[in-house]
Write a structure and sequence with these properties.
Elements: E1 2-7, E2 27-28, E3 31-32, H1 33-43, E4 49-53, E5 66-69, H2 78-82, E6 92-97, E7 100-102, H3 104-112, E8 117-122, H4 125-132, H5 136-139, E9 143-146, E10 149-153, E11 166-174, H6 176-194, H7 210-219, E12 225-229, E13 233-235, H8 239-250
Parallel strand pairs: 1-4, 1-6, 4-5, 8-12
Antiparallel strand pairs: 2-3, 6-11, 7-13, 8-11, 9-10
């Protein structure tokens, strides 16, 4: 089993913290996001770790890590970043966004999953979103489940009934799931080259979101198993997130969402 961390983004909403450094190098509670991810993967026995870089790639330097680069990080999105490391999509691969931290129980649950495509979903998302946003509905994305599988993901929700959980940016593809991922990506890209983007007609294919790809696979008949959790992770998306988490950490209120013990 190996892991790919997608860390090509500029992190514009985290400025001024990302004026110079990549988003994944922003420190939370004494460690950078990437350092925490590498540590948790290695502690779980996953030592084949790859990071896909973009913005200021030369600053990301960790020992015993494979590096890939998305040279078009300014004009592309997560899918193209992932496929910059296509050679590492083999047998059983965990894919993680480079702006999240998560506890070992979440990773262990994902590792244990025997499904071909497993996607981590937070069922307790609303409590977390209410702390981060004045109006949780504005920032959340749709996610619907049926018999433990995701049927809808990444759309703009009209109401809370269209949100049964939130995708956290962590998933695993293995065995036939890896084959299906590669084949579907190539199929969608080929269609986009001769017409509109089949994943999201509003944007060019190269700017498609990961949730566009996941929804496309669902529409194509592939089954995405929801690995459900309740808290245990954080997303560092904006400077307001950074300020909030540090405030909650100092008051020990962050323990409600993730178990990070103060030194």
């Amino acid at each position: 089993m190996n892991a790919i961390i997608l860390a090509a983004g500029e992190g514009k909403r985290l400025k001024p913290l990302t004026n110079e450094k990549p988003k994944g190098l922003v420190e939370l509670f004494g460690k950078s996001i990437l350092e925490r991810q590498i540590e948790i993967f290695m502690n779980a026995g996953i030592t084949d770790i790859s990071i896909v870089t973009g913005f200021n790639a030369n600053m990301i330097k960790f020992p015993r890590i494979n590096y890939f680069h998305n040279p078009n990080f300014k004009t592309t999105n997560m899918i193209e970043t992932l496929f910059s490391a296509e050679g590492k999509l083999n047998e059983s691969t965990i894919i993680s966004y480079g702006d999240i931290i998560f506890d070992k129980m979440i990773l262990e649950k994902l590792i244990r999953s025997e499904y071909e495509i497993s996607v981590v979903v937070d069922l307790a998302w609303k409590e977390y979103w209410e702390v981060r946003f004045e109006n949780p509905l504005e920032d959340a994305e749709s996610l619907l489940l049926h018999d433990g599988y995701i049927t809808n993901i990444g759309q703009k929700p009209k109401n809370f009934e269209q949100i049964q959980g939130q995708y956290i940016g962590l998933m695993k593809f293995q065995n036939n799931g890896i084959i299906h991922l590669k084949e579907f990506y190539k199929h969608a890209k080929k269609i986009a080259e001769i017409g509109s983007n089949p994943l999201n007609s509003k944007i060019p294919f190269k700017q498609s979101y990961m949730t566009d790809l996941l929804q496309g696979m669902i529409n194509f008949g592939h089954k995405l198993k929801a690995i459900t959790i309740e808290h245990g992770w954080l997303e560092l998306d904006s400077f307001s997130d950074y300020q909030l988490y540090n405030k909650l950490y100092e008051s020990n209120e962050l323990l409600k969402f993730i178990k990070l013990i103060k030194n």
